[in-house]
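Collaborator request, handled under Task 6.
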Amino acid sequence: DDGFDYFRQWLILQGRDTFEGALADADSLADVAEGEAECEELLSLAAGIYEKRTGKEIPPHGVPCPKEPAGVDWDEEDLPTRCPRLTAKFGSE
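Structure tokens returned to the collaborator:
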């Protein structure tokens, strides 16, 4: 889903402490998230700079992506229990 990619880029821009805090406790993002936590532009930034400087497309990174997400399965209905602060701040849309 594109939304996950855009969120991931936003999370990276928040810095290492926020990123690692979110890995340990996703609900900690209630302290920093405002509005839409997305940054689509970051996805193409490196490729755009590479192309501008070299005149070529950036080569594939070759990093394999998992076919399935890792971790414990959960449903959207679980959000109020899993992330009560985020649910209170943003609601369950």
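The cover message to the collaborator said: "DSSP finds five helices and no strands in the chain. Residues 30 and 46 are 29 Å apart (CA to CA). Please let us know whether this matches your experimental observations."
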